Amino acid sequence: MNTDKFLDAKGLACPMPIVRTKKAMDELSSGQVLEVHATDKGAKNDIAAWVQSGGHELLKQEEENDVLKFWIQKG
To answer: Which numeric CATH code is attached to 5-73?
Structure first.
């Protein structure tokens, strides 16, 4: 999947993955895609809820070797 920006939030505890995700999304234009990698298990629910409340779209979510990966398209 093509991404416009990558955010490495591995090793960060709540709420930092969300804080960094929001900051990274602010730098994107509508329609661009942010790829986020996180290891905080809470990020799975937190990012999904934040994406929905922010009017963005969670294009894909997967877990690989204890790393949560998210692809978010800016609304």
So the answer is: 3.30.110.40
